[in-house]
Amino acid sequence: MRPAVSNLEALLVEAELICRLRPPFNRQMRSWQRYCYLCAADRPYGQLALGHEPDPERPCFGPFRSRFRTETMLTALADYFGVALCPDGSAAHHHTLLPPGSPARLCRRYFAGRCAGPCGGRCGAAVYRDRIRARDAFLFAAAADTPAQVARELAALERMAPDESDATRAERHKQLSAPRDLGERAVLLAEARALLGALLIMPGPGTTRVVAVVCRSGLHLESLRCAVPDAERVVRWYRQRVNSTTTAPAGTLPKTVADALCTAALQLRRNSESCTLIAAHAMTELTTAQLRQRVFGSLATGCACG
């Protein structure tokens, strides 16, 4: 056991130990086996499916901490973008004798204003594809303005006219709260994905730095000093650890390291000045001299021989 010099190092080690040792009184991170994903599926109206593991052949989003949480977010997402939620295309399969535009095809979500009604022909194919694209962009944080739009709509509820009923305001607030939470989760997961396989350089004792990499196999820590041989050793160490381990389905984090990466992303939001981050794609071409310059700056020229 050794003391951690920075908060980020302490939080990363804590998340790794909780995942590995599963202490009985820590419920927040030890049940990662139950995490779920939202996955693309071959369904007639672009409905997403729940999965306990990401599908390497399809876009997946997550993970979420439980099946209930995943289902709640899936419903909120479908309501906000007005897309179908039929779990298996039953709206299409159970009404094969009805004409495409028949109201009998439509479910109560359509009449409640929560679905565009593609199964009943109430929404053009191009318009509905735009809804699906907007939903997917929101999930993968490609549409950065969508979470902000949800926040603006929630703020507008506070300025509603006095003659608006409390029931109307409460229902709208309920519909927007879950997409807001999902948007915040989407942004956090995007930040965490950027850390997968990246090299984190944190303060250490004296002029030594602590380097960390979180890959699919877990958290790995090493020390880095200014000397050239030490930098060469760390570059070799990094490439051995992350070789063929950072590839993941688009938009997903491995369950085993999701908590550690999200913890790191939150900490870097609060204080990124004391940590140097080198992205995984940059590390593939990084030389020893470039690493020393990035980490130690002008100090690197004075300790070339260690």
Could you walk me through the main structural features you see in this protein, from its secondary elements to its overall organization?
There is one protein chain. The chain has helices spanning 7-21, 67-81, 90-93, 108-111, 125-139, 145-157, 166-195, 228-242, 255-270, 280-283, 288-296, and strands spanning 36-39, 49-51, 60-64, 199-203, 209-215, 218-224, 276-278. The relative contact order is 0.13. Strands 6-5-4-7 form a 4-stranded antiparallel sheet, sandwiched between helices. The chain folds into 2 domains: 31-194, no CATH class; 196-302, no CATH class. With 306 residues, the protein is of the alpha+beta class. Helix 1 (7-21) runs antiparallel to helix 9 and helix 2 crosses helix 7 (166-195). The model is unreliable at 89-101 (pLDDT under 50).
What attributes does this structure have?
306 residues; 2 domains; 46% helix; elongated
Mean pLDDT: 79
Q: From the alpha-carbon coordinates, what is the Rg to the nearest angstrom? A: 24 Å
Please report the distance between the alpha carbons of the first and last residues.
27 Å
> Given the C-alpha coordinates, what overall shape results?
elongated
Helix/strand/pairing category: alpha+beta
Q: What is the domain tally?
A: 2
Number of helices: 11
Helical percent range? 40-55%
Helix/strand order: HEEEHHHHHHEEEHHEHH
Main sheet summary:
4 strands, antiparallel
β-strand amount = 5-15%
Low-confidence stretches: 89-101
- Tell me the total number of β-strands: 7
Q: Enumerate the strands of the largest sheet in spatial order, edge to edge or round the barrel.
A: 6-5-4-7
